[in-house]
Amino acid sequence: MITHEVQSFHDFHDIIHGYRRDRRWIFRGHNSLSWDLVPKIGREEYNILERNAYFESFKRRAIEFTAIQPIDEWDWIAFAQHHGLPTPLLDWSYNPLVAAYFATYPFSQADCCVYAFRPVNALTTDEVAPETFEGVAKFVPRGVAQRIVRQGGIFTYHNPPQTKLEDGLKSNDRLEKIVIKESYRQNMVFDLDRYCVNEMTLFPDIDGLSRYMAWSGRSDVRSYWTNCGKKEPDLTVEAPAGLRSD
């Protein structure tokens, strides 16, 4: 697998610039380099679940919480995934900045990464049901959750769900890894916020707004925007009467 390293936003921009001519590329952020490319329901802590009964139980209760009614099983799986239910889907985005956000935040003192994936084939969901497809393939969802639209969301579907993406690759698929170094990781969160990639824009509800305001109101965050974390002279100029100095 080709691996790139990022130590500045300039580095990141130069790398993603190389993907610009092929719109098949999709991106996924990993907060830890140790994480596998496996859907949540395929991970060890969920291996005793009876998947069908579990999912049917979710559907019976979830219908009271949404005005958008899923029309088939693919809609239901996409809806469930974007509201935190373990499913056989793995989240990706057409937007590499969105993937970088999920890689870098929340912050920890370690490298993180963005995967760039160019799948050749996509599921034809009007011809195949989730339970009959085997392998790994790209799945383009309908906008059954606002978050899918805001995040440029797309998925890979894994059946069985324990299948790692690497094990399901076709001969013409491509997978690359962009490692964001720990030395730049925290600053990248601020750079992404400058481009309006943050909790408020990616989670367009009152919870996303509250999380963003809680983050932006922290003293260390306010200090960064005021003086980039450095003690600098106060260059404030008093505003004329009737105007505000920001």
Report on the architecture of this protein.
The protein has helices at 9-17, 51-62, 73-81, 96-104, 146-150, 182-194, 199-202, 206-216, 219-227; strands spanning 2-6, 26-30, 89-93, 112-118, 135-139, 153-159, 174-180. The radius of gyration is 21 Å and the shape is globular. It has nine helices and seven strands. It starts with a strand and ends in a 19-residue tail after the last helix. The longest helix has 13 residues, at 182-194. Helices cover 33% and strands 17% of the residues. Helix 4 (96-104) crosses helix 6 (182-194). The strands form two sheets. Strands 1-7-4-2 form a four-stranded mixed beta sheet. The chain has a three-stranded antiparallel beta sheet with strand order 3-6-5. It is of the alpha+beta class. The protein folds into two domains: 2-183, no CATH class; 198-232, no CATH class. Residues 231-237 have low confidence and may be disordered.
